[in-house]
Specification:
Elements lengths: L18 E3 L6 E4 L4 E3 L3 E6 L3 E5 L3 E3 L12 E4 L1
């Protein structure tokens, strides 16, 4: 890029987009379901029919590290 005032080249730094991987939870589905998630994306897990949420967080957000907030949920058979 050329600066219009003094015609020197300027290097622009574009930081990489932080992305979290999709984390599989047995006996649950995730919304939205995709392979990677951008920073600040929130996902919601839903336990399958005949399974109850017994621990962890059903709603998690991709943070800037990039890691998921909260604790991986567990769905156990009723």
């Amino acid at each position: 890029m050329i600066c219009p005032f003094n015609e020197h080249f300027v290097t622009l730094y574009i930081p990489p987009v932080n992305q979290c991987d999709n984390v599989y939870v047995a006996h649950a589905s995730v919304t939205p379901d995709q392979p990677k998630y951008d920073y600040n994306t929130t996902i919601t897990y839903t336990c399958d029919r005949a399974y109850n949420h017994t621990s962890g967080d059903l709603v998690r957000t991709c943070d800037d590290t990039p890691r998921w907030t909260g604790i991986l949920p567990i769905c156990t058979r009723m």
